[in-house]
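User: ok so my PI wants both of these folded by tonight, can you help

Assistant: No problem, let's get them done. Here's the first:
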Amino acid sequence: MSIEILSTGAGVDAAAGASTRRAAARGELLRLRRGDYVETTSWNGASHHDRHRALVHALMRSQPDDLIVSHASAVALLGLPWIGSFGKRLVVSDPARDRGQVKATMQRVGTASRVPDTVRIEGMAVTSPVVTAVDVALREHPWRAIVVLDAVLRRGVSTEALLTELEQRGAARARVRARDLIEHADAAAESPGESITRWGAHVLGAPVPVLQYGFPNDWGGTERVDLFFPGSGTVVEFDGVAKYTDPRYNGGRSSQDVVVAEKRREDRLRAQPDVRGFARVGWSDAMPGGQLPRRLVEAGVPLSRNWGSAWRAAAVRAL
């Protein structure tokens, strides 16, 4: 969905500008920034990605050509998945600056003469998927970062390319954390929910699971599961609300029909000889401080001795 930006700035007919301001006064338009407006209904119905894209377009109009859309703003323009809101600031990389600068509507990240690899999107220079993923791994919350890293791997970016980019960047301490994220990223993760569940299990010291593991079914097909821990025989399925309510995923079935189908599928999986435990995990479980440890332990997945302190430490940094 594209959000049209209506301007009252230079080059706009005076009568048209006055009409736009009157519409804003009636609540039909929402002011994005001084001189730029969007339809209120379009804005209210838009995704976080589309809202941030509109903000980027509005703010980049008046910026010099050497600024590069980067970090979270690049995630939005590249169409990569993201957890939560993108915030109210455009993020750009500025090769002319050694230090960053934060203002009300823009955050500049100084790259000290380093010019990042870019792609052109809608007429703007945007950091490439490799650069964007490493930027996010270095600066953003790990739960957000792993979602972006898994997604760029699914698009064909290699782990080696990410590690090569990382070696050119950031302070040593930041690189250590980012390297851990990159090395645990997995192209097999098919949704943000799977990504954060797997990362949460890693933080808790659980064994490395197999993603999209397939069990044979009675009609010659395969039942694939989100995560399978072979050592404990545990299946872990991420249960997002969209599975039950979004027509893209429920095949036009009612929520009740989807619940029944999922229960029958769970029964089939529990009957597999290699399956000894089963857990369903939701968003609130998999986010830092949630009930993921309990879900895993009750299903038989072993955790490290210090899982409690690791989980508390993860919850300290808010998304």
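One down. Here's the second:
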Amino acid sequence: MKTSWRSASLAASVVAVLTLATACGQESGTSGSSENVGATAPGSIAGVGAGSGVGAGVGAGVTESPGGSDAGAAGGAGELAISAATDLGKILTDGNGKTLYRFDSDTAEPPKSNCDGDCATAWPPVAADDVTAGDGIDKSLLGEVTRSDGTKQLTVAGWPAYYYAKDANAGDTTGQGVGNKWFALTPEGKKAKASGADGGSEAGLPGLSVRNDPNLGKIVVDKNGMTVYRFLKDKAWPEPVSNCNGACLDKWPAVAPVATDDTKGVQKKGLMSFTRSDGIKQMTVNCSPIYTFAGDKSPGDINGQGVGGQWYAVAPDGKLVGAPAQ
């Protein structure tokens, strides 16, 4: 029996759609790139829905204009040094003793800074010019990345390095833990953490795991123990699509890709990453894009639950927790 061209075309279309559905629904790992995009805001913004205006300074992790420091404004960091004079363990400083930081929303593979505008005012990038490795520092870990404005920024193990504008004196570490996104750099390029503090996956928490919340039941949390959310306006089929961009992404940072073997208690089917329309990679649970909330200040917070009637915590199987029937 001969097949008409219309039948053949229809069959091809069905195969294409099924291929997309399989790609979304299959058990899949990720590329391993780390980018929890969108700086968190320590200011009280609970109850703000997607798309409403929040200034870039808030998104950068500060609530007022920083002052009192021009760290990194001119020249390079000079000879880097290791300081152990804090409760953070060994951390990197520049030649003047100023603490160097890294940002969870950046990526190291490949190196990329996601801190611009007001964020870069609060967190001045460390210039790559004239930087040398001091005693105990592996010079092979030092590099540079070209920022969006064309300037060169120092990287440590691939992570772009910054100062914190509110560190007024040598040895200050007031930027540690700001917004649960900013951490002092160790000589190896990792996140410093205070003794006994939970430093995320580097302190033992998986990239994604499950917490039993007293109000919501079992919900997914990220490597820092922060509640993970879904956005009702997003799409999961036939492929993940995020509809949270711009100012929305400042308030609802996208969860970075996580390897499937770095999860615990989360359904493996549909656990995958995808590339957003802005080029950033984002994690999904059951193919739905997932986020954290800038209004959550500490692990266990659920301030994003039900915001705008659009944002809800995520169950281990990827379903919305406490959302009205759709």
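Confidence is low (pLDDT under 50) at residues 1-22, 25-74, 195-203. Residues 51 and 245 are 8 Å apart (CA to CA). Good luck tonight!
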